[in-house]
Amino acid sequence: MTQYHKEEEIIEEIAGGEFERTPVPQSKLKSWKSFLGMYAGEHAAGTEFMIGPLFLTAGVSAFDLIIGLLLGNLLAVISWRFLTAEIAVKNRLTLYFQLEKICGKNLVTGYNLANGILFCFLAGSMITISATAVGIPFDMPMPKLSDTMPNGVTWIVIVILIGAIISIIAAKGYDTVSKAANWMSPIIVLAFLACGIVALNQLGVSSFSEFWDIWGEGKEPFPGQIKYTFWHVLIWSWFANAAMHIGMSDLSVFRFAKKASSGWTTAGGMYVGHYMAWIAACLLYAVYLKSPEAQAFLSNGEAPPVAPGPLAYNAIGVFGIIAVVLAGWTTANPTIYRAGLAFQAIMPKLSTAKVTILAGTIATIAGLFPAFAMKLLDFVALYGFILAPVGAVIVFEHFFHKKFGVIKNYAEHANIKFNKSVLFAWAISFGIFYFISIQFDIFLSFVTLPTWLLCGILFLVFSKYAQKNN
């Protein structure tokens, strides 16, 4: 046994058996049922209570919402199945260790730090959402769409308590995260369904045409929001989880899968969560918009607040509060787990539990600031745009390294700590398309795919040139 492999085993033992730096062994592989529960729980979750209403604030039409989501979510499932899961079962490595082999230790450290922090911010928005439910019995003022700072002591205390509980669950490892999702997801799915049915009744809907008329041909967006068309809905729903599928973050999850076909289980999350649940949550907000309180906001030129807790409570009472809290947990748990893995790649000698608690602490601090949740559509588009192109490096190397004559896992092969080909490919593609987005006011999700493709192509071109000259 080499000294390298001895060190790997020591690190693995310290890490608590989550196989952060070794391939997952056959004895630890899981069936598709484990992933179905996790994805259904993660995606029929806290974000859905927030995203559904935000579509309504963007003035979408019925066709744009219903058909756009149908097709966009299909593209996301296909991305998971044929890219993420396919590569995950071949290598059985975390995203972070896989990138280290390609990029080198020093370069991937910067990526892992950015990845972990962005995941923490996303988890923080889930803690914010749960807090809007827990705060109801305490008559806590709810954050508005325009709020950025904490709005009181009650808010701060509730967010800290929720964050602590979520962090402890996530720190128990993948098995605990998966089990928590399996237990909670049926309750959450039932709650979304109940919310949708109650909201339809409150809106007086008795036919499909009346359901369609809730959105109709679309309206002007609310103050401070942009107008969403069919293409906005389709592309945004495809890339809402861009960091996870084309960005390859879920290599860390699907490395436990017995077969690549487990990638199809993401459909449970997409069509229960990102379809039924988004629409149900949208209906809850449609009910609220008819209230005198919401009309007062609109008459003053302000967007009515989107607070998931009160929306669900008004529809199904205490069950709504419980559902929103659990929904926040099932999203934040795996997100904090992923963030912990990112931090552990930087600090491999720290245990999984310690780095996950660190991630949970950052997420809790982020959860204190409502801006991450209130601007969730924009934040999700941005973090997908930043992280997804790095996944192209893994995808293009995996599928095309032989055709281009590029050495796979070059940093490990050449024993280098900084692969410039990766940095230049990401920086050039990111810079060009972010400039185009800002300069021509193009919706950021519209340029995510071209950025991803350009990054992958440039990586192969730069790698071939660099390896030839070394």
From TrEMBL:
Which InterPro entries does the protein's record reference? Answer: CodB
Q: Which UniProt keywords apply?
A: Membrane, Transmembrane, Transmembrane helix
Tell me the domain of life.
Bacteria
> Where is the chain membrane-spanning?
65-89, 110-133, 153-171, 183-208, 228-248, 269-291, 311-332, 353-373, 379-400, 421-436, 442-462
| Name this protein carries in UniProt | Purine-cytosine permease
What species was this sequence derived from?
A: Thalassobellus suaedae
What does the record give as the organism's lineage? Answer: Bacteria, Pseudomonadati, Bacteroidota, Flavobacteriia, Flavobacteriales
